[in-house]
Amino acid sequence: MSGEQALSTLSENMPKQPLVHVSELKKSFGSLTVLDRIDFDVAQGEVLAIIGPSGSGKSTLLRCINFLETPDEGRIRLAGVEIDAGRHPGQKQVLQLRRLAGMVFQSFNLFPHMTVLENVSLAQKRVLTRSQSEADARSMELLDRVGLSDKAREYPYRCSGGQQQRIAIARALALNPKVMLFDEPTSALDPELGLEVLSVMRELAQDGMTMIVVTHEMHFAESVSDHVMIMADGRIIEYGPSAEIMRNPQSARAQRFLHAVRDR
Amino acid sequence: MNVLFEQAGNWLPHLWNGLKLSLGVTVASLLIGLPLGFLLSLGVISRSRAVRYGALAVVEIGRGAPSLVLLQFAYFGLPSTGLVFSSFAASVAALSWSTAAYSSEIIRAGLQSVPAGQSEAALATGMTRLDTMRFVVLPQGLRIAIPALLGFAILIFQTTSLCFAIALPELTSRAYEIGTNTFQYLPALTLAGLLYLAVCVPATLIVSWVEARAAS
Question: How far is CA B84 from CA B76, B77, B80, in A?
């Protein structure tokens, strides 16, 4: 075996460092514990679906990953940037982390006073210090990718909910994130419009984007995600490969939840 | 009322000079007060406790004290500390404070009515808090505040009539002066009232138009 071969075999056999590593994460609102010692990893290119009943802490968990909510304790490592929440991280560290994570919200949150193109270009100019023309060129590429380049000069209110959410995805992708965080991206959409958003997300997953998706779309969780995490009362009650978890949940609480959503 | 028509021609140039002074005080107070109000609104929502309380004190005193008290404080009160103002400067100082205090609350309400999701979306892309404020919150919040600020500008114009109490020869003072000289208070004050209306009614129409545009 040549040295080069040996090296490549060695690197294949070495456990890869996960892209996202969350450990001992805790968050309370007053006396209410919303997240209780959460640990999980997400590998490069993996899609993780987080499901569970309302109030189980799914969205809070997602918002803690990019520090839109500040966790009380715990560590988050994202593509080499590590933050220990207990040590009161500075603004600089938090900004560094946020640059690596794109986020898509349930209510789209497009900026209504800007055109679609400006929505996608703004952070590129301010955060990545791209020139106007560089940013706009990249924005047009991304709008084309989500099938909306013809809407570039429109204002968001002229777009349907599904279109707005696809624009929001393009806006998040514009920063070249390492991971995409989706917070119930289809919950505010009727089923038909939800489908166009899900199809964009499916394509992203196929292209190898690492994704963490809080969702009520059981079909998406089962067919697109690699792993599924079920949360209840601020804890992870079930975690594993999606087919296994969705078809054969072990805990009674997870079984009850999956029955309830399927019987709906 | 015949006197009104007979004397209008004689009195109008005198009242017109008063109106110009009233408008001058209004414009100067707005030019100084609105930027101060904007800064105070940022102070009131600041994360620093010292800045927040400092700004709140300035705002609450400005809103709590009647304009007449502020005017008299600036004109009759401050000279005892060595600060002597002309009646015009005292008027502008007092009404600027009033403007700053009230407009800061109007602007703060506008900024805080921008949904939290807007700042979150900007922060999530890695933008700084300052950039988020500048590019996302301010343009939306100020647009919401503009109709109320214009309405307030009309109110300040009417408030300039209180400067009468500190010997500023503005519109009301001049009408009163004509009354004192001729004993024709009713027609003189009526004519002054009509001049106030001539400014306020079109201004109110403009505000309504801006409001309708902002709402659509």
Answer: 9, 9, 8
How far apart CA B72 and CA A31 sit, in angstroms, is 52
* Overall average pLDDT of the A209-229 stretch: 94
- Residue A64 in domain: yes
Give the domain range for residue A117.
Answer: 16-263
In whole angstroms, give the CA distance from residue A147 to residue A127: 25
Give yes or no for A188 touching B (CB within 8 A). Answer: no
CATH (domain of A179): 3.40.50.300
**What phi and psi, each to the nearest 5 degrees, are found at residue A103?**
-130, 140
Query: Which amino acid does the sequence have at B75?
Result: Y
The type of residue at B53 is Y
Summarised one tens digit per residue, pLDDT across range A27-43 is: 999 999 999 999 999 99
Partners of residue A81 on adjacent β-strands: A78
B115 close contact with A: CB closer than 8 A: yes
Contact partners, residue B95, CB within 8 Å, separation at least 6: B25, B26, B29, B33, B67, B70, B71, B156, B159, B160, B163
Q: Are A76 and A25 a contacting pair, CB within 8 Å?
A: yes
- Give the Cβ contact number of residue A99 at 10 Å: 22
Interface test with A, best of B125, B129, B144 (most A CBs within 10 A): B125
CA quadruple B150, B23, B98, B192: dihedral positive or negative?
negative
A10 within a domain of the structure (yes/no): no
Q: What is the pTM of this model?
A: 0.86
Residue of B nearest to A176 (CA): B125
Residue A6 lies in a domain: no
Counting the structural domains of chain A, the total is: 1
What is the nearest CA distance from B132 to chain A, expressed in angstroms? Answer: 10
Q: In what order do the strands lie in the sheet with A32-42?
A: A32-42, A20-29, A73-78, A81-84
According to the model, what pLDDT value does residue A5 have?
Answer: 54
* Position B6 confidence tier, pLDDT thresholds 50, 70, 90: confident
Give the CATH fold of the B2-215 domain: MetI-like fold (1.10.3720)
**Closest in A112, A113, A127 to B125, CB measured:** A127
Tell me the nearest-neighbour CA distance from A68 into chain B, angstroms: 7
Q: Which helix (H) or strand (E) holds A126?
A: helix A116-127
pLDDT tens by residue, B191-210: 999 999 999 999 999 999 98
The torsion defined by the Cα of A203, A208, A214 and A220, in degrees rounded to 10, comes to 50
How far is B103 from chain A, CA to nearest CA, in Å? Answer: 23
* Nearest Cα residue in chain A from B140: A113
Asked, for residue A9, whether it belongs to a domain, the answer is no
